[in-house]
Write a structure and sequence with these properties.
mainly alpha; globular; two-stranded antiparallel sheet; two-stranded antiparallel ribbon; 278 residues
Length: 278
C-alpha cells in the first residue's frame, strides 16, 4: 500500500522498518505497565525494571535476527531478482544476495522465526539465572510479545507483503502490484494479536499458576495462525510437505504450550500448601 512511508532528504524510510521499531516501543511500554503493577514478591523474583530491561534487549536482538534468518531459510523460493528471475532455492538466493538475512530494515520477516529465536535464547538466559522465576516473567512478557506484533503486521500491510489469496469478499483489498483484490491477512493477524494482548493483560493478574499466560498464548496463537494460513496467497512463504512453513511450525508450538500448561498446572497442585501463621 505504502512501502515507503516518507523520505528524509533523499533517503527513503521504509514503512515496515518504522512499524517494526514502533512494535518494539509498544512492547516495551506494555512491559513498563507490567512492572508498575508488579507485587513486591514478583519484583523480588525478577519482575523489576532493571531485570526486564536487560531481558528485553536480549529478546529484541534475538527476535530480529531470528525473524530474518527464518525468512531466509524458509521463504527463499519465490523471491524475484531485479531482472524478474524467480529464485528456486535457499542456495540460489544466497548466491544472488549473500547478505539477504542481514537486511533487517526491509520487509520479509518470519514472526515464528523471531519467536523461536527469542524463546531459545530465553531458555539459555534463564538457565544461567536460576534465581529468576522464568514462568512468571514469561507470563509478563506474553502481552508484550503480541502487542509488538500489532504494528509489525500493520507494517506488512503497508509494505504489501504477507498478503492473502485472491478474493471477491467485502474484506478484500487491492495492492498495487497484484492483479486483483486479496484477503488482507495482515489485518486479520494484527486484530488477533490485539485481542491476545488484551486477554494476556487481563489474565496476568488472574492466573492460577505462573506460566499459565504464556502457555495459553502459545496454544492460542498457533491455533489461529494455522487457520489464517489457509487464506494466505503470497508465494514466498515456504512449504513443508502439504503445509505452509507456519502451519508446520504451529503444530510443535501448540504441543509445547499444551505440555507446558499441563506440567506447570500439575506442579502447582503438587506444591505443599503454605503453613498458616499462628
Amino acid at each position: 500500500m505504502r512501502p515507503i512511508l516518507f523520505r528524509f532528504f533523499d533517503f527513503p524510510v521504509p514503512s515496515f522498518a518504522v512499524m517494526m521499531v514502533l512494535g518494539y516501543i509498544v512492547a516495551l511500554s506494555v512491559l513498563y505497565l507490567q512492572v508498575r503493577r508488579a507485587t513486591p514478591e514478583e519484583q523480588a523474583q525478577g519482575l523489576n525494571w532493571r531485570q526486564v530491561w536487560d531481558l528485553f534487549i536480549v529478546m529484541t536482538v534475538s527476535s530480529i535476527l531470528g525473524s530474518k534468518v527464518g525468512h531466509t531459510l524458509f521463504e527463499a523460493p519465490g523471491h524475484l531478482t531485479e531482472d524478474g528471475t524467480k529464485i528456486e532455492s535457499l542456495w540460489q538466493l544466497l548466491r544472488y544476495d549473500p547478505w539477504h538475512w542481514l537486511r533487517l530494515g526491509e520487509s520479509g520477516h518470519v514472526w515464528y522465526g523471531g519467536m523461536l529465536g527469542a524463546l531459545l535464547v530465553a531458555v539459555f538466559y534463564f538457565r544461567r539465572r536460576p534465581h529468576l522465576s522464568a514462568p512468571m516473567i514469561s507470563d509478563a512478557f506474553a502481552a508484550a510479545i503480541t502487542a509488538g506484533a500489532v504494528p509489525g503486521r500493520l507494517g506488512c500491510f503497508l509494505a504489501g507483503c504477507c498478503h492473502g489469496r485472491p478474493s471477491t469478499s467485502v474484506f478484500a483489498v487491492q495492492f498495487p502490484k497484484l492483479p486483483g483484490p486479496v484477503y488482507p491477512t495482515q489485518l486479520f493477524d494484527a486484530s488477533v494479536a490485539l485481542v491476545l494482548t488484551i486477554f494476556s493483560l487481563w489474565l496476568f493478574r488472574r492466573r492460577r499458576f505462573d506460566g499459565q499466560v504464556i502457555s495459553l498464548l502459545l496454544m492460542g496463537y498457533s491455533t489461529f495462525r494455522f487457520a489464517s494460513e489457509i487464506f494466505r496467497g503470497d508465494e514466498d512463504r515456504g512449504r513443508i510437505l502439504v503445509l505452509s512453513t507456519s502451519q508446520f511450525l504451529s503444530i510443535p508450538l501448540f504441543l509445547a504450550g499444551l505440555l507446558l500448561y499441563l506440567y506447570l498446572s500439575r506442579r502447582k497442585l503438587a506444591a505443599p500448601a503454605p503453613t498458616p501463621v499462628a
